[in-house]
Amino acid sequence: MKNKIIELILKNPSSYKNRLIGVEIEDIVYTDNCNRISVNPSKDYSASDLLNDLIKNKDNNNETYDYSIEPGGQIEWSSTPHLSLHDIQKEHKRHLESFRSLLFDNNLFAIDYTVDPIYSPSTVELIDSPKYILMNNLFEKSGSHGNWMMRNTASIQINVDILSKEDGEQMAFLSDCISPFASLLFANAPFIKSDPAGEKNYRHIIWSKTDKNRCGYLFDHGIISSDNLIEKFSDIVLNAPSIFSMDKNDNVKPFMGTINKWLNLSYDNNELSDQIINVALHQIFTHVRFKQGIIELRCADRPPAGYEFAPTAFWVGILTDGVIRDKLMELFLSWKPIDRELSIKNADIINLEKIGPQNTSMHDWINYFSELALEGLSNRCHQLSISNEEDLLIPYLELFRNKGVPGLFRQNEYINSKNPLKEFISKPF
Predict the structure, then answer these.
(1) pLDDT in tens, 196-216
(2) Nearest-angstrom CA–CA distance, 427 and 124
């Protein structure tokens, strides 16, 4: 089983000059009177209706990007994989035209926060899907915040092609080390249940309290280096309790036991298809995870409108340039386990002056990694003969330098506005 998982992760490796990037961006949608949009089809226009109309529009326009719906009705846009981030940005602009038009026509608006600012999960409908119902049932037992994750969060995921086993393992290790800092840099959960969230980095906290068997950092699962990292990740997959199983007719069913037990009882190696292995991989939600031929980076919050591609540019600059990676591999070899533990702990609280690894503030580390990301983007531009993608990151870094973390300065803007929260958040982006 393990070898099959490893084979799928490393299937059809890319090359440096053909390494593609994909982006997934989620949005929470409200009605014009600041209620969460209904999720399942009903007498009112629902998130399910919105999804269907978005798909119709993209099909009519021969677009190759895609849409899906999350458990609480969040709408997810998934880009076509591209070499250049600017090409993805162009696709996103076309998506926004369709998205905004449908929102306007149906008296809706999308909010650019990573955690629902008003509603608790108990007031948010769950989509009528066997997979998500089983997930909900498991998360009710596995942690205290699984319902928050499913119903009340929106995020951005960045997918990067793997070139080789070493390439994938290095990217996974480095991104796992840097993810606490990226989580703080892009923190964007200013309100919880209609109140300012204070210094809590709430989406980071939510994921830490969802399910320790399948969430968190690779470091939390005992992965402390890049050595044999994909094999060790495969162990995480196989040892995790199965959320659901899929039979030979593609029917989703409950299963009591580990993913390894489900696969062994249901399939022999000859029957273990790529589709089934992908089902297994998609039941793991670590901040860094592998899928077929790609690594997925999941720690960044859904950014404020207009800055959607800053996390993508950050990660691509950090991870796809060999010079930058060599610097970082050397750095993290000098870190002790206590340094990793401290950075993860510090990421729960938006206090950038907190001392992090090697007696250096979290703020200084964030600045260091950001500068490396810009250097990597510049190198990538020359090596691939594409336009420099630093314009997708620099405006956000300027915002960060001038105003701080969105999760904090947006609270101050709300308090200074003296407006009710519903009025404050209801400005469509």
Answers:
(1) 999 999 999 999 999 999 999
(2) 21
> What sections of 228-361 are H helices per DSSP?
229-239, 259-266, 274-281, 310-319, 322-333, 337-346
Q: Which residue has the tokens 């531009």?
A: 381
CA pair distance 341, 266, nearest whole angstrom: 39
DSSP state of 251: -
Q: Which residues contact 212 (CB under 8 A, 6 or more apart)?
A: 142, 143, 220
Residue 304: DSSP 8-state = P
Kindly report whether the global pTM for this prediction surpasses the value 0.90.
yes
Task: Tell me the C-alpha to C-alpha distance, in Å, between residue 156 and each of 44, 79, 268, 418.
Answer: 28, 11, 36, 30
| Burial tier of 404 (Cβ tally within 10 Å: 0-12, 13-18, 19+) | middle
Q: How do the domains of the chain map onto residue ranges?
A: 2-425
- Which residue, 289, 280, 284, 282, is CA-closest to 262? 280
Phi and psi torsions of 77, nearest 5°: -100, 130
Q: What is the CATH number of domain 2-425?
A: 3.30.590.20
Distance of CA 122 to the CA centre of its chain: 23
Q: Report residue 22: phi and psi, to 5°.
A: -130, 150
pLDDT in tens, 16-56: 999 999 999 999 999 999 999 999 999 999 999 999 999 99
Q: Which of 29, 43, 47, 186 is nearest to 119 (CA)?
A: 29
Residue closest to 394 by CA, chosen among 309, 300, 320, 303: 309
DSSP, residue by residue, 212-243: TTT-S-TGGGT--SSTTHHHHHHHHHHHSBPS
CA distances from 142 to 136, 214, 335 (A): 10, 10, 31
Cα 408 to Cα 428: distance, rounded to the nearest angstrom = 20
